[in-house]
Structures are given as C-alpha cells and as structure tokens.
C-alpha cells in the first residue's frame, strides 16, 4: 500500500518521536560498543548491519521497540480472546466502547470530515472545568449527508469545546445507474446537497436545547490543493438569535481516495453562483405567484384576511420556506410497521413551544428542519404535524397538514387523511388520537340530529402536503361545518401544482435540506426500566421516611403490574384494549381477603425519575398510594419503557399498594 507523501512523513515523525522517547539511539550505541569489544577479533574491524541487528535482537531491544510502536489492535481478536461469557441475566456492560475499524469500499469516493475543536463559545466563558466523573452539560454535533447520519461523542460545554471527531461520508450519485462507479470531481460538483450540521446542548438533567443549525458547502475541497482544506465555520443561533454568533468550529475536509485532477477555484465559484441564481429566480417567481394567489383569495370574501392561510414559514435559522417544502413522503424502513404506530412514535417526541425572550405571550414561530427536530427529540406542534404527515404519505395515504385553531382561538396544526370512500380522519400529532369528521349541515331543520364533534379543533384556514396547497374558501371556516371535498374549487382554492413543484420537489436545487432517514433507538428498554424503577423505589422510601413511615416492597405485586402497562401502551398504539381480565384476576389472587388494593398508572415521554416522581406527587390519587398508612402496608412500583426510533420512548409507571382495611 502506497502512502501519500505527507502521510509518510507524518508516520516517520511519529516513529522518530517514539524512538527518542525510548532512548533507542543511546542503547544501540551501548550494544555496538559492547559487540565490538566482546565479539570481534582485533583483525576484524568491520561490522555488518546483519551482525548489529542480530545483537540487538538477542538483547530484546527490537521486540521492545515493535511492542511500543504497535498502533492498531484487532478489536475482534481481542474480543474473541478476552471477553468472558455473558451470564444469562440482563446486565449493562459498563466498559467504554472500543472504536472499530471502518470498512472502506475502494471503488467509492469518500469525504472525510474532521471536527478539530471549537472556539469562541462565549456563553460558556465562565464555565468551570468539570471534575473527573462529574456530570456536566455537553455539546453533541449531529450530521446528515445524502441519507447518512452521524453523531459526535458528547463533549463538556466550554468556551473552547474539545471536539475531536472524524466522519467518513460516502459521496455517491444516485442517478449514475452504475453504483460502483468512482465519481470524479466534475460529477461531484453537480451534487448540491450540503452537509447539514446540528449542534445540540444536553444539560445535567438530560434536557436538550438546539444551539445551532448549519449547512456546510463541502465542494470547496474539490478545488483545494492536495485535496485537503481547513474551514473555520461560524455557527449562528436559532430562532430569535439567528443573527447572533454562538461559536466557531474548525473543520478539515479531505477526499479519499485523492482526486487525480483537481478543479480550479473559478469553476467551483461559478457553479455556486449559478446555483444561487437559479434558486433565487425560482423562489422569486414562486413569491410573485403566491402574492397573486393571495390577492385572488382575498377578493372571494373580505373576511378571508383573518383566516389562518399559511403559505410561508420560518425555519430555525429564520429563513422563509414555502410550507409545502416541510413535507415529503418518508419511509421508516423496518422501524415502524403501521400508520398508527407512526402516530404513536410522533406523539412520544417531546412537545415544547419555541422559546421567546421576554413577555407578551406572543407565539414565536419556528418550523424546524427534520434533522433539528429529530436530534433535539422535541419540538412544536408544527414539527410533529409535519413529521406525521410525511410518515403517513410514506405509508401510501393521502395526508395533509391542517392549519387552524383550537379552543379560545389558539393557533394549531394537525394532520388529516382522506380515504378513497371520502372518509375524513383527523390525527392529533401531539397525542396520537384519531377523530372521524362528519360535517354538520347548517341547512338542516333545528330538530334534525347532528353529529357531535369529538375533536378539539375549531377553525381551519388551509391544508397542504408536498404537492398541494388549498385555501379554505367556504362561507364559514368552522371545522364542524367544513366539507372536505378538496376537488371542489368553490370550497377549496388550490395553488398551481407546477408552482409548488418548482420550489418544493426533492429533485430541484432548493434551499430546503433533504430529509434524513430515521435511526433505530439506542436505548435499552430493559436496562432503562430497571434503572428508573430503582430510582423511584429510593425516592418513595425517602419520602415515606420523612413522614415517619416505613416502606416494605412487594416484588411479586410489582411484577404483576407489568401486563397492565403493556396493555396501556398497546391501547395507545392500536386503540385496542386487551389483557385486562388476566391482570384483574392476578391482582385478586395476590390481595388477601380483608385487604385493599390501589393502583395508579401514569405516562411520561422523558426518562428523568426525579421529575416524574414530583409530577406523580401532584396527583392526590398517587400521593394517597405513596403515603399510604394502615396495617400490613405493602408497596409496589413497576416501570416499563417502550422504545421508538430516534431517542423517543414512552415511559409507563404504575404505583400500587395493598393493606389491611381497619375501620
């Protein structure tokens, strides 16, 4: 294998430093003098290289040097020889993960992106150095490039965070047909997808915050000398702070294998300029069309100007995009099996309104890009609705995002699917609930029986997906009287499909990033359930101790609560209740005559035991169980964590007690 000149010189330098560190030169001189003195006759004054190597080998110096210079250990061999057989019980392996070698396909082209530290994260200027073993806030960098996702190791938050990670991104061209063809510089120049980088801060309680979202233009490396370039990337804040710098990342880009022919900087600059002009022109034409469409919409009825018709929305960087570009059919592979399971997954992603600095009660608008939403693992109702609509489209349903209001005129978004038989179903993305829509006919006589709506939605201004945008132009925008015949232009004013396609279709050079694939959960459900349960037992015991009460746990009763928690999650996912009879029968057998049983189930989407316990104590029913007084009191708690893609999980907790009733 031939090394590039700079790599060879770097390797020589490492070896030289190691030899100096071990004082190998001094030891060779000693062996040389000793060999000449002892082994050579006076008439032989010439010493060959072979004689010297033999003498060094006999004294073990060569073996010692080779041992010190062993750079890479075969991880698989190490595991085969040293790993003890695992016991049959479920346990967590606390050994730090060993970095394994990456298999590189020699017929493919790769971009090696290294993050070599950060600086000027001034918000953390006063951050003290974390002590060894101390829990501290961390930064994590998430990357997405052409259907590949990466995540850096968490590093402590600091003014100069110690990022040192390398990511190997495969650069391929989907439309080439020949999958194994090595792409050249000219072909790569036409790949306009940026590297999307999202910086997440995780505090000591496990709460995540979106710090920055950046699109890296990597193609400058195609014109760099030796195929290597170093870039200082300035990260800007998000939302209201999108014009404020939060820090700088030092990034090194390198092509593997090296390009035979580099492009000139003029060619890359011209390409970037042409792409920007083309995108700007398409966006300008769409804006002109959108203004014309809005004027026509207002001329239908003057009251239309107060309806929630949303054509553009700001992303986390404060940039406006057509709302249709936030939706694309998204397939979850084998991670989610049904549309209802997808709805459950979206509902257990955390809900958090975009932060606002200062009062006033105004809603800060921020429609996050999908990568930012997934990495942060929480977002506003718009983020949830966009993701659910994309997943339902991936399952082949005709799905739309609805923009309207809930009670008291609070703006809200939800998802709607249209069946082939005309059935309209509303999906609440924050809860996973589904509602059938049957319109009320205002022209019916007063005594005619009308369907009673169960959904919480009041008004609707528009519906949209990745191909269509329709404004509600019916006399009333109240959801209960709306007819969702989307083909009827007297009820729903459509936008031109061609206009939407020009700025929103995935094939166009657009400022909207491609969707990342969903990742499987990295949470071990059994371990996490055990950990939370153990923490809750300690918290309950301490709480009862403060009240002067002793605590006796009934492990068998705790185990009997498991089927109930599984049934609750099944019901949330499928709307089917099952297994309740067996649970009730088991509890009746476990609770003796003359004893009372009380149980309290509760559901969370986070894994913080202390926070969950504090919430539970606010419920009088739960507090009654935890602070139970009586004769032969036995307490039980069971935790069951159900994992979903990304870091999403549903956490079910059930507290229970049994005691002898004393009148």
Q: What is the overall pLDDT average? A: 84
Helix fraction bin: 25-40%
- Briefly note the structural class of the backbone: alpha+beta
Q: Strands of the biggest beta sheet: in what spatial order?
A: 17-16-15-14-18-19-20
| Distance N to C terminus | 87 Å
Low-confidence stretches: 70-97
CA gyration radius, whole angstroms: 32 Å
Strand percentage lies at: 15-25%
Note the overall shape: flat
Instruction: Specify the biggest β-sheet.
Output: 7 strands, antiparallel
SS element count, helices: 17
The counted number of beta strands is 23
What report would you give on this structure?
Pfam families: CEP76-C2, CEP76_C, CEP76_N, CEPT76_peptidase. It contains 17 helices and 23 strands. It has about 675 residues and is of the alpha+beta class. The strands form 6 sheets. Strands 17-16-15-14-18-19-20 form a 7-stranded antiparallel β-sheet, covered by helices on one side. Strands 2, 3, 4, 6 and 7 form a 5-stranded antiparallel β-sheet that branches. Strands 5-1-9-8 form a 4-stranded antiparallel β-sheet, with no helix packed on it. The protein starts with a helix and ends with a strand. Residues about 70-95 have low confidence and may be disordered.
